[in-house]
Design brief:
The chain is mainly α. It contains six helices and no strands.
Length: 117
């Protein structure tokens, strides 16, 4: 490894690359979902139906999934994009949480590659 490549490795701003990457992936997924909608799959319709009939609990799941789907149906006016946007937001939020936790525990480089994997 040359001195220039070692110097480059030392000066990578992992935080900036993470935020750029997460923004690009979020925008791509949101635009793809908005402009190329496809029908809901089996699980999505199952949970969406729970959202149409919220209850304190279901046979195999706690009540929060039904409540979130009720909120998604109400906010998104029961469109495919409106139903899927919550999965996109919660997935992105989970990646951000994991990056921040990993950065605090192991450093920014390990957190970046952990979230990327």
């Amino acid at each position: 490894m040359t001195e220039a490549s070692r110097d480059f490795q030392r000066h990578i701003d992992w935080d900036r690359w993470f935020w750029i990457g997460i923004l690009m992936v979020f925008l791509f997924r949101a635009l793809y979902t908005a402009f190329f909608p496809y029908d809901l799959t089996g699980d999505e319709t199952y949970y969406w139906d729970w959202g149409r009939h919220p209850d304190w609990g279901y046979f195999s799941k706690p009540p929060l999934i039904g409540w979130l789907m009720a909120l998604a149906g109400w906010a998104g006016r029961n469109t495919v994009f409106g139903i899927r946007i919550f999965a996109l937001l919660l997935g992105t939020g989970t990646l951000i949480f994991l990056f921040l936790l990993g950065r605090r525990m192991y450093g920014p480089k390990t957190a970046f590659w952990g979230v990327t994997a």
